[in-house]
Amino acid sequence: MMTKFDGTAVGPRGGDSRLAAPAGLTGEGSRTLRAGFIPLVDASVLIAASEFGFAQKEGIVLDLVKDVSWANVRDRLAFRQFDIAHMLSPMPVASMLGLGSNPSPTITPFSLGRGGNAITLSTRLYARMQQAGALSETASALENAQALAKAISGMKARGEPLPTLGVTYPFSSHNYEFRFWLAAGGIDPDRDVKLVVVPPPLTSDALATGAIDGFCVGAPWNMVASERGVGRIVAAKQDIWPSAPEKVIGMRPEWAETHPETVSRLIVALDAAARWCDRPDNHDALSEALADSRYIAAPVDIIRRVLAGEFNLDDQGNRRVIDGYFKFHDGFANYPRPSQALWIYSQMIRWGQTDLSSTGMTAAAAAYRPDIYRLALGADAAPLLDDDIRVEGAVDGDRFMDGQVFDPARIADYIAGFAVKSGMGSGSLAEEN
């Protein structure tokens, strides 16, 4: 039986039909929305909505502003320099829990899709893993993590410095996925390695200079590192949890409440752009747009291959193809499911960033707003209401790396079941400001 959370923050508000595209926005006037984003392929839906006319069709102009860090994006949304923002999926959850250096209430009514993350280690560290674990070129993500554990054990025995690994933000899918992968291999992320914050565009250079020994980041920066010959891709998001939400559209609750028509039109535009981005015959045009210096400023051929899920794992000719590496719309990829927010909450508790409470569960679930999504697109565009709070990782093709399932009704048992987790507060990561 599924657990439901009552209240308007989580429950549906209805809406049975798709709104027709307007010539302009009645009541609220024509809108120009200032939107912050980080140069990553998972900003595709937002960029495509602007570049290919989907926003304009809904009477909206998107003023896209490229930023340098997630902390900047968070602050500029809070201080009303942005109306909406490309955000990490845990950021609204953290904000509603009052976590971080500048917590300001933030919600998301729309996910920008799934996929896009990977874990890359330096070629130096990977060579040590091969020696320590007799690692094959076709090793699985779990085998790679176990080989890293053996390499770290040897480093400890010799009194060598522990590996320094980069994530993009303390409250990020990258932080939790990296920790999940490390722990599955028997590595304590708070004692066996050093985790630091590195902005996505700087990860490849940081790896090349030896400032870090690995990172978890979104595309295209993993492939940039592997093709430079400085990194080896050892795991992808799909290996850890395929359905994990990646980036979302964040907005302030009071802004959403005072601009309901604008929000609905925005969701209609993003939905159309997401459908367009999922079609392979549009990937050439999308790659060209993303490669522009205004957006990602990365080689168009790398972006095109990333969209197709075609990876060069290193510069030695080792390749991997991941079908559906990016899902911009398919499988309700845009639906902000509260049970996904609750899984994120479970990882925050697991790694000592917050405590478990009924108040915390309600706040975490309230960050994801399927009611606004349904109001904009209609019930036919959304999953069944019973799926809003569901058991995650329970079906083939959507398993967690460790084989466990997440039942929001048994969150305490789920956290207690992990062999590797933080003590009080030890899971905190210095926040970038």
TrEMBL record:
Signal peptide: none
Keyword Cell inner membrane in annotation: yes
Subcellular location: Endomembrane system
SUPFAM superfamilies to which the protein is assigned, alphabetical: Periplasmic binding protein-like II
Tree of life domain: Bacteria
Keyword Membrane part of the UniProt annotation: yes
Region Disordered, residue ranges: 1-23
Sorted UniProt keywords: Cell inner membrane, Cell membrane, Membrane, Transport
GO CC field: endomembrane system
Record's protein name: ABC transporter substrate-binding protein
Organism: Pararhizobium polonicum
